[in-house]
Design a protein that fits this description.
Strand order of the largest sheet of chain B: 3-2-6-7-8-9-1-10
Shape of chain A: globular
Strand order of the largest sheet of chain A: 10-9-8-7-11-12-15
Number of strands of chain A: 15
Number of domains of chain B: 2
CATH topology of the largest domain in chain A: Rossmann fold
Order of helices and strands of chain B: EHEEEEEHHEEEHEHHHHEEHHH
Strand content of chain B: 15-25%
Helix content of chain A: 10-25%
Largest interface: A-B, 47 and 50 residues
Order of helices and strands of chain A: HEEHEEEHEHEHEHEEEHEEEHEH
Structural class of chain A: alpha/beta
Distance between the termini of chain A: 27 Å
Number of domains of chain A: 2
Shape of chain B: globular
Largest sheet of chain B: 8 strands, mixed
Oligomer: heterodimer
């Protein structure tokens, strides 16, 4: 994991973004696109490594910066993928960019999922809406090193079928027997053949071994409490349930103060916390 | 640390000597108040000041500063150099030196902030003893004393100063610019009685021992709603605070739209949009939650990382608050369970 120390050793101004070229843009939904970026400087690109769950600051000079979690797996060398919803100034400016354009990247920042700890265990991933973006990195990582993990269950909910992200990949995986993948939407359309209803409803359909399962949750703020309740009902340990938070991580390096949650900063102490830690963070969930 | 005695009458020599080599900044009178400003003549220096409007943080972390200049076309940084002229800040009280030490933890540890560091490293600090005022409560945190972080510190013994010398540069300055002598046991005794009298001069002491625990235990107390009702969300408390370091970053484009500067400016957790994210969710929408967060972070969040509270008891926020909210009142309310 790239740390503060790495920045110091390099003598780099941590506020200075590295130019990165957009090498591919994929329209995922009406509001979300998947951007593939390649850091231009060979040395910086070579040294860039991250854990699933970490984020970068996407920098567009003249507009500003926005924290975006990395969606690709750490095993994908030389490129990173960012799944970005058009929501504010920076993300709108990014959506207006074309393949070949140059943007800036700072990072990776924060604490990701505890990959080493999770190895050898079952994993239950629960995503709501855009929350699939950071979990996608974890899913791809598990996929790349599938033999290292036990049973893998993915529950993913969105408002409607058009808002299901990465559907092309999930459709391909439906027939695999080494991933249990259940998709659900609140409002189905005529073509929808998967589940209907909240993601919490899917817990009735799955069997997990609470003694050997790690949980990973990301979604809209309202979702966490309900999903955690279901995991607790299945008797999963509080310190094996991991949540990823979205806050206003403006500087990414624990200085600007905007992402404070309880007594911590999301950008350097998170954005991934286990539920025991999250329970002890005021106003976190 | 070693100590010297400097005659009071030598003060102008010292200031003049420093001014020959450095820009000298110190407390000067301005429109009936005091500010840290450029000392043009030794007589400008008002070492009898109580407190300044803004703390010395403005000299290291300015209200607005350019971080880098950029080119839009290839999203490239053109210049991110920091220019920091050598200077001396003369006449800091121990609360303000302690304030800088607390800021150092944020800006000079993990992910060093090059802008803050450049200014910090190019600046010598000369402290001076003070007398407590009504709004001060540095005695609550032990920040009425300072043991490191300055180059020299002058304790006023009336006709002379008891000079604590901490750095090589401080020793050199003293040696080069002013006549001083070794301390005697009488000097040390007088120093002890002056500092003891200062400690006794505070009208009250605050019990802060259970503060972090109480902040969690009383997180849902109605006292926060009462404080929230009074707070105007003006952010003045943050601006005048020697330890508030939050900032916002903005890009300013040149008229040709092809280049520009990325700048940062002081921000406040009391502002309504401070914790809002891009798609509309605001994690601290109510004033009550914002007032509470300011105290929660200062007395517990920062403490959990650096083992000190993020307050030096300078009383500036109390003076600046139009709603009359003071940390003393909040601490007491936590201890007793109600806002006065």
């Amino acid at each position: 994991m790239k740390t503060a120390l790495a920045y110091q050793q390099a003598g780099v101004n941590p506020y200075r973004p590295w130019p990165a070229r957009i090498t591919s843009i994929l329209d995922l939904t009406e509001k979300e696109k998947l951007f593939e970026l390649r850091i231009i400087d060979d040395e910086v690109r070579g040294a860039f490594s991250f854990d699933s769950g970490q984020f970068v600051e996407l920098s567009i000079f003249g507009v500003g910066e926005a924290p975006i979690s990395i969606s690709s797996a750490p095993s994908k060398q030389g490129f990173i993928e960012l799944c970005v919803r058009e929501a504010g100034d920076v993300t709108s400016a990014l959506h207006a960019k074309r393949c070949g354009d140059i943007v800036g990247i700072r990072g990776p920042f924060g604490r990701g999922f505890p990959m080493q700890e999770m190895k050898g265990h079952d994993v239950l991933l629960v995503a709501g809406g855009l929350g699939i973006a950071p979990l996608k990195s974890l899913i791809n990582h598990i996929h790349d090193e599938r033999h290292e993990f036990g049973k893998v269950t993915i529950l993913y909910g969105a408002r409607n079928p058009d808002e299901i992200l990465f559907r092309y990949q999930f459709d391909m995986w439906k027939h695999r027997d080494d991933f249990e993948l259940i998709l659900t939407v609140d409002v189905p359309d005529d073509t929808w053949t998967d589940e209907v209803g909240r993601v919490t409803r899917l817990f009735e359909m799955i069997e997990i071994d609470p003694k050997k399962t790690y949980g990973a949750i990301c979604g809209p703020p309202v979702m966490y409490r309900y999903v955690i309740d279901e995991m607790r009902r299945k008797e999963m340990d509080v310190d094996r349930i991991y949540v990823s938070f979205e806050r206003r991580m403006k500087c990414g390096i624990g200085k600007c103060g905007h992402c404070g949650v309880g007594h911590q900063y999301t950008c350097i102490d998170g954005p991934v916390f286990n539920y025991w830690e999250a329970m002890n963070l005021q106003e976190a969930i | 640390m070693f100590f010297r005695i400097m005659d009071r009458s030598r003060m102008p020599d010292l200031v003049r000597g420093l001014a020959a080599e450095y820009e000298v900044i110190g407390p000067i009178a301005k429109d009936g108040k005091f500010v840290f400003g450029k000392v043009e003549d030794p007589s400008d220096l008002r070492l009898d000041y109580d407190t300044t409007l803004l703390p010395p943080k403005k000299l290291f972390f300015p209200p607005e500063e350019q971080m880098m200049r950029f080119r839009v076309a290839d999203n490239e940084v053109v210049d991110d150099e920091v220019y920091a002229a050598p200077r001396v800040v003369f006449g800091l009280h121990s609360c303000d030196i302690n304030g800088l030490l607390l800021m150092d933890n944020v800006f000079m540890r993990d992910y060093e902030d090059p802008y803050y560091r450049a200014r910090r490293e190019s600046t010598l600090l000369v402290g001076v003893s003070c007398t407590s005022s009504e709004t001060c409560f540095c005695n609550a945190w032990g920040t009425d004393e300072v043991h490191w972080g300055f180059d020299i510190f002058l304790t006023d013994l009336g006709d002379r100063y008891f000079v604590s010398v901490q750095s090589v540069k401080g020793a050199e300055l003293l040696d080069r610019h002013v006549e001083s002598r070794e301390i005697t046991s009488e000097d040390t005794e007088e120093f002890q009685s002056v500092t003891a009298a200062f400690k006794d001069s505070f009208s009250e002491t605050l019990d802060t021992s259970q503060l972090p625990l109480l902040l969690d235990a009383k997180f849902n107390s109605p006292m926060w709603d009462e404080l929230g009702d009074r707070c105007l969300s003006c952010g003045a408390c943050s601006m005048v605070c020697p330890t508030c370091y939050c900032f916002d970053v903005v890009d300013r484009l040149a008229p040709d739209q092809k280049s520009g500067a990325r700048e940062r400016r002081w921000d406040s957790c009391q502002f309504g949009e401070f914790a809002a994210v891009a798609h509309g969710q605001n994690f601290r929408e109510s004033r009550a939650s914002r007032v509470k967060y300011r105290y929660y972070h200062k007395q517990w969040g920062y403490l959990s990382k650096f083992e000190r509270v993020l307050c030096v008891g300078c009383g500036r926020c109390q003076r600046a608050c139009l709603a009359g909210i003071s940390p003393r009142e909040v601490v007491k309310a936590l201890e007793t369970g109600g806002v006065q």
